[in-house]
Each structure stands twice: as structure tokens, then as C-alpha cells.
Q: What sequence folds into this?
């Protein structure tokens, strides 16, 4: 029967409860939302910033970092707004491990292996049993940190999903054939299966059953027999637990003597009605075939059989053999085994029974992670059972009588699933997945990413069936510039990737980081994920001149703009931070360098700004300064500018451009007679001697 979508609420409401839990080891907050299933895509669920009562200043600094992948909802990291991303169907969520707990008599708030520690005591609060869970880290700079652990504020967000009555009760299969011996004792009951309703109990699940006669032609083309008052439905409510579907003991009670020669078959419809508004119904076609009688009923040698199998047990493996006895010698060799009528569709898919020898064989892939909870026969409340497996009803018949036993199959877990890794980061991301940017001057211990490791082998709240357990799961990296540390002391599956050494863009601008996470199973399985961390350059390197002092020569008399020399300074930074400009620096001497020498601020070329005359000036000394990040934008410099200086000495070379000149027109000297030759007479820059 197709599903019919029915909504009994005219408008949907979103109720948010803000719950705080104080712990000694960290800062944690729990936030709960309650919504109806089947909300439109894009519908608002709620806002963390509003419900955390953040003021306007705090809201401008909000930076929420989700720690798990979000499939069903959208989450805005800057506003904390949560909206519906995909269809939210409670019944689909119930199929996911740990999301819902249908059929249990006591239902606590949904929790997970990772988040149990964050939930406050909620025993007095009534919540829907189905929930979507998120874990968010608040990275605001002013977020108060625990004085002991110095850990960020963690917010557990639980979105509880209200059920709508959109599924009718149903049987799988929807046809049941019973064989009842003729002349069966009046008052004997034959068990009938309950209908399944994936909606939430008890209101939207089965409330009552009734049995009505059916037209034989609705069941098969050629039949003999009509419904009569020979049978009556026995329906007894055996379990009524808050928040859980009602449990019924259904039986077909014989009300009159059955005579196969008079009527060989009876036809009924078993109708189940739920408690929704409006009510939905489902039906099971019941065909009762009357068989010939014999004296003895077969019986099983074991009354409560039980076996344990590993989840990777191969298809075709025989796991159990049912042995039945019959005290009637003529029937001993006619016994046939079969699956009981109450077997679920999943049991029928995974197991088969050899009709001749009664062997139970695996016919499908057994998976511990998808196995249902196996009710504990020793516990009054199946909620506290941590066994997972299947109940297989086995029937044996001698063609007249039927006996039944139930085989309990306990499925044991094997570590057959490697862990999965979810990485979130507060850093700027590139277009490529798994690529992040971080400033090279980030201090040691800077958060690069958070790592959430999950393992399908670890069912919520269950330790049984996974006996080979290592100590704890862990993650690591071989890149020595980074390290993986536990994110939170109370949560063993959450980690953080932080810097462990000072980073330098000039030495290495890109780091490849391989994250390896190991699970807690035995043998240990691991998963790898590769990240690329690119360093953003900061202006931390000053320019460097090729020489501390530059010497140059230029002859006097050369024209203006004659090249003298070219200076150069390099900068180890990159991009805008490495762009260098040159300028004169005043040394306190009163000299107009702009009129004597010209400096190209981009190339560092120095040219003459005048025609030099060595007879007027012999040399020029000046200081040149190199300034980095000089393009004027400053977007990558962060307001930091570095400089360096060098001395430039320009020597003016003389050329023979002046004839000799006497200081006086005439010179007079006095010398006594009788001097020998070569006696100096007079002269300042020459020697005048007397020669005989």
C-alpha cells in the first residue's frame, strides 16, 4: 500500500530549548531544537547567535566551526543560522544506527558515542526519539576558555524531529497462509503476526486489530470455502510503554469444530488501525487451510536454541540444524521444516531453512552494523540489551500438526570498517578541496583544522560483540611542522591539527600534511586524508643591498643625465612585500642632491643632474634608502614596512681643461755675484737656479 502523507498540524512550530551543562574539565553547551519532519527545503530551524543571547559586538565576531559533516541541514558559520538542506524524513532517519529507537519501552534523549558527555540530565524532559546531532566549536576571540584546559567552547546542537502520521500499518509479506488440522480443539489459538508501522508510537502506530471475512476470489482464482463463525480474533494488549508502540498478542481462536470434508478453507482480512488523525489502516490477507488430522504433534529437541556468528560469515554457511521429533511412527519420516510466518522480511532475506534436514543456512550478507537489537530474554526491558542479531522462527510440520521454536542468532562484530575522517577548518580555503591558507607568522599552536573520526564498527552504547579492542583511537601526521592533538579531553574521537614549529614562507611556501587515523579495533584499521597548507607571505624580510658602500667615478664636464652607477637591493619576501623603491636619505649636510644627482626610484639607476667641474667639487657622498612594500596598496604587508641603506661615493675625475697661468705679470729676484751654478733662487711651484 503506498504511503499517504498526512499532517495533523496546521502550522509548524520550532521550539528551542537552551540547556547548559557545567563540567570541571571544559566549557560545553547543549542546544536543542524541535521540528516536524518533512519541512520544506530552506525552512529556518533556528539561530545559535539568537538563542545564545549574543550582543551585537559578539555577533560580529562569531565564527562557529562545525566539527562533523552536515548532510540534512545548512549551517551558517557567521550567523549560526540553521536551515533545512535535504528532506528530513523521520522514518528514513530511523534506519540510521542510533538516530531513532522505535519499539523500545524506555526512550532516553538520542545520544552518540562522541556526544554522550555533553548532554545534561534530561530525564524530566519529553523529547521526540529521533534526532539530528551536530557538534559546533565557538572560535570567537573573546570566548571564555577554561582556566584549566584552555579549550574552546563546544556546543552540541540536537535537532529533535517530531513524527507525522504518514505511514499506514503494513505486513511484509501481506499474505499469510495457515494450515490447521481438522477437529482442532475448540478454544485453541494460532499466533498471528503484528503489523509494522514505522511512525512513532504509541499515537501514530497500531491501536487496534479486527478480523473480517473476505471474498475467496480476492485471494486466488479457484477456491472452495467461505468465511464463517468458525474463527475469532484474539487481540491482547501485552505491553504499553510511554513513547513506544503498543505490543499485542494476536491469535486466531478456533470457535467451532473444523471438518475438512465440509469446508477446506477460510478467508479473512486482518485489519490494523493506527491512532493518527485521520487514522490509517493496513490489511493482511489470511488464508486458513484445513488439513487432515493425525494423532501426534511434532516437537523440537531444543526449546530455546541460540547460536553466535561473525558478521562476515560467508553465504552458504550452515549455522544451526533444527531437530524435531514425532511420536507418531508414521510421521517421523514426513517431517518438513520451514520459516515461521512471523519471520521478518530481513530474516527471510538473510537466512534459509532446508525443508528436509532443518539446517539453517546464511543466504545473505550479515552486517553487524545494520543488525537490529536482539531482545534480551533475561531482561524485562530490551532497551538495556547490547546484543545485536536476529530471531528466526522455525516451524516443523507432519502435514497435520505444526510446532515452532525460535532460534536466537547473535551477530558478533568484526573490525571490517576503516574509520572515516571529517575535517573542518576555520582557515581560509582555496577553490581546491582540502587546501587551506595560513599566515607564515602564525604562532606555534595555531589551530589549522579539527578532525572528527567515526567508526561504523562502534555502535552507540554497545561494547559487546567487539571483543578485540585496542586502547584508544588516534590520529597522527608525519609532517614535523604540524602535530595532531586531542581536541577535547572528554571526547576520544575528536582531534585538532595545530602548528608545532615556526613557519617561514621564504624557506617553504607549501606544506603537504597527511592525516592518518587509526581505529580501536583489532586488527587496527586506518584511513588517510591529505591536506595542503599554503603559507601566506608577510613582510618580515628587509631589503638587502648588494654592497654596503658603492663607489663610482664620473669625469667632469659630461652632460646632464649621464649614467653614473646602478644600485640594487633584493627582498626575500614575495609579491607586493618584495617590491623595492629607492630614495635619498638626508645626512644633515646642506647639499641639494636632487640638483646634482638623479635617482630612479624603481630601477635604482643614478645619473648626473648637472655638469660637474672638478675644480669646484672633487666628490659627492650621499645615502640611499631601499623601502619594501612600496607599491602603495599594502594589502599583503599588514602595515609593516622594512628599509635598508647604503652609502654612495662618486669621485669627479679631472680632465686637462685649464691652461697654466702666472700669478703676476713680472717677477724680480736678487742674487749676489760669485754664486756657483745651480743655486736655488726662488719659486713656489718651481725651482729657479743660477747657471754660469
A:
Amino acid at each position: 500500500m503506498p504511503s499517504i502523507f498526512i499532517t495533523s498540524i496546521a502550522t509548524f512550530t520550532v521550539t528551542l530549548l537552551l540547556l547548559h551543562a557545567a563540567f570541571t574539565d571544559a566549557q560545553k553547551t547543549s542546544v536543542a531544537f524541535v521540528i516536524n519532519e518533512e519541512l520544506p527545503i530552506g525552512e529556518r530551524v533556528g539561530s545559535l547567535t539568537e538563542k545564545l543571547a549574543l550582543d551585537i559586538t559578539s555577533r560580529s565576531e562569531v565564527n562557529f566551526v562545525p566539527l562533523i559533516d552536515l548532510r540534512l541541514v545548512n549551517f551558517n558559520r557567521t550567523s549560526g543560522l540553521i536551515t533545512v538542506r535535504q528532506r528530513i524524513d523521520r522514518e528514513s532517519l530511523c534506519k540510521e544506527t542510533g538516530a531513532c529507537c522505535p519499539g523500545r519501552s524506555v526512550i532516553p534523549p538520542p545520544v552518540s558515542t562522541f556526544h554522550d558527555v555533553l548532554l545534561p540530565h534530561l530525564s524530566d524532559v519529553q523529547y521526540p526519539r529521533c534526532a539530528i546531532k551536530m557538534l559546533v566549536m565557538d572560535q570567537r576571540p573573546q570566548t571564555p576558555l577554561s582556566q584549566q584546559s584552555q579549550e574552546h567552547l563546544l556546543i552540541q546542537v540536537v535537532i529533535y524531529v517530531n513524527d507525522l502520521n504518514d505511514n499506514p500499518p503494513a505486513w511484509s509479506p501481506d499474505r499469510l497462509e495457515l494450515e490447521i488440522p481438522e477437529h482442532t480443539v475448540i478454544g485453541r489459538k494460532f499466533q498471528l503476526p503484528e503489523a509494522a508501522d514505522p511512525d512513532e508510537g504509541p499515537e501514530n502506530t497500531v491501536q487496534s486489530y479486527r478480523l473480517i471475512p473476505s471474498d475467496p476470489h480476492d485471494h486466488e482464482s479457484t477456491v472452495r470455502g467461505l468465511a464463517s463463525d468458525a474463527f475469532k480474533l484474539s487481540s491482547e494488549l501485552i505491553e504499553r510503554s510511554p513513547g513506544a508502540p503498543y505490543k499485542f498478542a494476536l491469535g486466531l481462536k478456533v470457535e467451532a469444530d473444523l471438518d475438512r470434508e465440509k469446508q477446506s478453507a477460510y478467508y479473512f482480512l486482518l485489519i490494523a488501525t493506527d491512532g493518527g488523525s485521520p487514522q490509517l489502516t493496513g490489511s493482511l490477507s489470511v488464508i486458513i487451510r484445513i488439513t487432515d488430522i493425525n494423532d501426534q504433534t511434532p516437537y523440537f529437541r531444543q526449546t530455546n536454541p541460540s547460536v553466535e556468528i561473525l558478521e562476515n560469515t560467508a553465504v552458504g554457511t550452515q549455522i544451526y540444524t533444527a531437530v524435531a521429533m514425532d511420536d507418531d511412527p508414521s510421521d517421523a519420516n514426513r517431517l518438513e521444516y520451514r520459516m515461521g510466518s512471523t519471520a521478518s522480511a530481513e530474516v527471510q532475506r538473510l537466512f534459509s531453512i532446508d525443508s528436509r534436514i532443518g539446517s539453517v543456512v546464511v543466504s545473505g550478507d550479515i552486517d553487524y552494523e545494520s543488525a537490529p537489537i536482539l531482545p534480551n530474554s533475561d531482561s524485562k526491558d530490551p532497551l538495556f540489551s547490547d546484543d545485536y542479531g536476529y530471531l528466526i522462527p522455525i516451524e516443523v510440520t507432519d502435514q497435520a500438526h505444526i510446532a515452532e521454536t525460535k532460534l536466537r542468532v547473535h551477530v558478533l562484530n568484526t573490525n571490517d570498517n576503516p574509520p572515516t575522517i571529517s575535517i573542518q577548518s576555520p582557515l581560509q580555503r582555496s577553490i581546491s578541496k582540502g587546501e587551506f591558507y595560513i599566515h607564515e607568522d602564525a604562532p606555534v599552536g595555531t589551530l589549522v583544522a579539527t578532525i572528527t573520526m567515526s567508526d561504523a564498527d562502534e555502535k552507540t552504547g554497545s561494547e559487546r560483540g567487539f571483543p578485540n579492542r585496542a586502547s584508544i583511537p588516534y590520529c597522527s601526521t608525519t609532517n614535523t611542522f604540524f602535530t595532531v592533538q586531542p581536541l577535547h579531553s572528554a571526547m576520544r574521537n575528536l582531534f585538532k591539527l595545530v602548528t608545532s614549529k615556526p613557519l617561514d614562507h621564504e624557506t617553504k611556501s607549501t606544506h603537504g600534511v597527511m592525516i592518518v587515523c587509526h581505529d580501536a579495533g583489532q586488527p587496527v584499521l586506518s584511513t588517510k586524508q591529505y591536506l595542503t597548507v599554503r603559507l601566506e607571505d608577510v613582510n618580515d624580510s628587509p631589503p638587502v643591498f648588494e654592497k654596503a658602500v658603492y663607489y663610482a667615478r664620473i669625469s667632469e664636464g659630461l652632460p646632464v643625465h649621464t649614467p653614473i652607477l646602478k644600485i640594487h637591493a633584493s627582498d626575500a619576501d614575495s609579491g607586493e612585500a618584495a617590491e623595492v623603491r629607492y630614495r635619498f636619505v638626508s645626512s644633515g649636510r646642506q647639499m641639494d642632491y636632487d640638483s646634482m644627482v638623479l635617482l630612479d626610484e624603481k630601477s635604482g639607476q643614478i645619473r648626473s643632474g648637472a655638469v660637474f667641474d672638478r675644480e669646484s667639487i672633487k666628490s659627492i657622498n650621499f645615502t640611499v634608502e631601499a623601502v619594501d612594500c612600496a607599491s602603495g596598496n599594502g594589502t599583503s604587508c599588514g602595515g609593516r614596512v622594512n628599509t635598508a641603506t647604503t652609502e654612495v661615493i662618486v669621485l669627479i675625475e679631472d680632465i686637462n681643461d685649464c691652461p697654466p697661468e702666472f700669478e703676476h705679470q713680472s717677477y724680480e729676484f736678487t742674487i749676489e755675484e760669485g754664486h756657483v751654478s745651480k743655486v736655488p733662487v726662488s719659486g713656489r711651484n718651481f725651482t729657479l737656479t743660477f747657471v754660469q
